Structure to design on (250 residues):
């Protein structure tokens, strides 16, 4: 929100949230009109949260200009494939969900939030967040932009992704935007903005930002890098002594 406000652009942001939710569940919820979501909405910079909301309700709540979908639950990289013994397909769930959104919001521009791209020509905009994050990792931040190896951290990681969304939607460079969270210094914000801008200009490649010099005296000790292990079967979790995910799922 702050990035849009900084350039005088009014914006309403909505998010239908279920933690780790896969496309399969979204498509099922659309088909059954399930009141299964936490509806998070930002108006004039203020977020409200409403529980037990239907997709149909949220899609009708505003004349949305953009509607974004994404895969979840660790399947971002699986379009229709088997990898290391795990088989997953986004179809027919992605098609069904896009058709549902189009029926409710015929004038909205469809967006796919990548982690990874998808083979749907009706998707008018791909948010290639993975490129922006890989770009920022080439800078002095290194591989220290997540909070658990999986979710972006609350400062550098999220701000970089937000910068990408701003530039993609506005069609103008985010570099030089006056907004930055209080936890991010001006030099650090420039690195994030540049990482996002380069991802927009050069998608699906990594742009080297090692030319940015780390500001003197910043952060004190070097941050630690955490290697996270991810579990795709109950047998694996039991063998390693971990029986639930962070969301409490088996």
């Amino acid at each position: 929100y702050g990035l849009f406000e900084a350039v005088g652009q009014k914006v309403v942001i909505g998010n239908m949230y279920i933690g780790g939710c896969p496309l399969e569940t979204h498509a099922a919820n659309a088909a059954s009109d399930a009141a299964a979501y936490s509806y998070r909405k930002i108006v004039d910079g203020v977020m409200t949260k409403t529980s037990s909301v239907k997709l149909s309700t949220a899609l009708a709540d505003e004349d949305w200009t953009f509607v974004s979908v994404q895969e979840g639950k660790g399947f971002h990289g699986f379009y229709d494939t088997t990898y290391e013994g795990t088989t997953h397909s986004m179809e027919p769930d992605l098609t069904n969900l896009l058709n549902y959104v189009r029926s409710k919001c015929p004038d909205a521009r469809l967006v796919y939030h990548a982690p990874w791209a998808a083979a749907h020509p009706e998707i008018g905009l791909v948010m290639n967040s993975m490129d922006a994050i890989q770009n920022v990792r080439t800078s002095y931040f290194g591989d220290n932009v997540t909070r658990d190896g999986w979710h972006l951290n609350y400062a550098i990681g999220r701000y970089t992704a937000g910068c990408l969304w701003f530039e993609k939607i506005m069609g103008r460079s985010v570099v030089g935007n006056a907004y930055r969270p209080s936890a991010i210094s001006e030099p650090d914000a420039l690195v994030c903005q540049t990482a996002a801008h380069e991802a927009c200009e050069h998608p699906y490649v990594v742009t080297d930002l090692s030319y940015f010099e780390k500001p003197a005296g910043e952060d004190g000790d070097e941050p630690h890098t955490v290697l996270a292990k991810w579990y795709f079967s109950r047998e694996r979790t039991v063998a390693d002594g971990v029986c639930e995910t962070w969301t409490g799922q088996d």
In short: The two ends are 35 Å apart (CA to CA).
